[in-house]
Amino acid sequence: MHQPTLYEFPLNEKMRNLMRIEHQFAQLEHFATRTSIWDSQASLMVFLEIVNSIEKNDIKNEITKELERNIGILSNLTDAPAINNYRLQQTLDDLQTHLHAQNINGKILRSLREEDLLNAIRQRTSIGSNINCCEIPSFYFWINKSGAYRQQQLKKWFEEVKPISAATTMLLNLARDSATFDTRVAENGFFQKSLNAQQACQMVRIEIPPESAYFPETSGSKHRISVRFLTYENTNQRPIQVTGDVEFAMSCCGI
Known about the structure:
255 residues, YacF-like, 2 domains, single chain, 18% strand, 8 strands, alpha+beta, 8 helices, four-stranded antiparallel beta sheet
């Protein structure tokens, strides 16, 4: 049986940044398991995108604050009825572990800034140029090393950002697990829902049947969300809104 297609939409900049970097880490994990020169180059480029995202969006500080916020919220649930205290304590311990990892890491990218090869590549990409062997001889030297050597070097660099990756995964999974899916109907392809400002919704998740001829486009704030279901008559033209009713499943996640 085919799984439904899942769409996720962040409702604030913090969640958007975490979801972006999660996607980049998933790409990195895919390419890093392979040893061809093209996979190593792809790994390196995605890794530098991650480093730039962490620096540009102050991801480490954002994650630290979000870990502390989650710890505060969950700590108040210890006396709540029907709570699984063992699982709650385990979650709190995991959050504390991730928070400790952020704190002891200090300036998380300090050693990476001292890597001459990474700096040479970042200088080229910062001006909108792709990396190639004729312009960066040091990269050509590195990419022609053995696959085992390249993987070992990449693994060393990746260790610097592992605490960010692990904490991002936990925070996003906590948000996703905070809500269940409900069946909804978009009349004439449009659905709108008011939100309770006291119950923060940080991410909207929408499930539709696999191989559907339409896709959702979501916009929203802490007050309401709107979903339009669109379809392509031709991909060289803008998509148009579905005219019939669309049944879908939706969850509003936030902790």
